Amino acid sequence: MAAPEFASVAMTKRFFSALILIFCSVAAQAQSASADGNQSATRPNAGGEPDAITMRLGVLDIAEIIDREQVFVADFFVEISWHDPRLAVDSDVAADLRTVGLNEIWNPRLTIVNNRGLDSLLPEVATVDRQGNVIARQRLAGRLAIDLELHDFPFDRQRLTIEVVSYLYAPSEIVFSEDSELVARLDTLSGDAWTYDALEPESYVYRLRDGGRGAAGLLFALTAERGTEYYIFTLALPMSLILFLAWMVHWLPVDIVPARTGMASATVFSLIAFGVSFRLTLPKIAYLTDADRFVLYSTLLVLVSLAITVITIRRASTGRKDAAERLARQTRRAFPFFYGLIVVLTVIT
Known about the structure:
CATH superfamily of the largest domain: Neurotransmitter-gated ion-channel ligand-binding domain
Number of helices: 5
């Protein structure tokens, strides 16, 4: 009986030993996971100096600027780098560069405030070297919001911004280094109607309300100057032709009533249709642009011309043909002067 009892005791000991080993293994894995979680949730210099973040943004293309929707369509490449000594390794067998998911390590939690539909085109991963230097790369394409300043339209100059903000960290926790930069081959961008220039990145504090905590931000910007050639052919030339038609009314004999009234009415209807259709290309703004002033001054001149046409017809039909012809001659001489005045007022105001 002693042998079976001894065997039973030995099996019990081996069972408990295996159970203890399994428990220790699970505990070790849980501790490791907890450590990794804490490491990804806390910044490298937690409690100390702000962590330095370097961000390089390369503009690959600006497809178009949509005035009416106040957005621009861009394609750009972003490289974000920082140092995390906790990821450094001394082992000779470790790879020079490791690829890890961004959700597995600490990162500055960046977002683009004026994003209106950007698509991420690359995996959300980072490369880490032996010293703990981390680089994350991403390509983004899509729409970004822009606050257009259209007072000088179509002679305007716009500022296209990409507003990068950390949604988790304040300026006391992370800072963007002076090595951050914006690069672009400005002469290869698709927007042929614009001339671009790159500006230096600016660090700023993003706040939703005055006195708020604030978040660390970096502002990338391009200036875009609108080309005026397109609007010379689509705005200035058609409007000038309408005014020329209004001027030609006063070259007709004052007693040819149907032709004079028909031409005068045609100029008014053409001007209204053209002005409305052109304004639909712009956003709903509460101020006048240079183009609006040009259309407004032209409308006033056409209305005055129409009124003079009615007066001359009235005089001619009541036996005062000489007075009607004299008024028509005066209008023919004054009309070019007022057209030039409209052009000057549009440019200088």
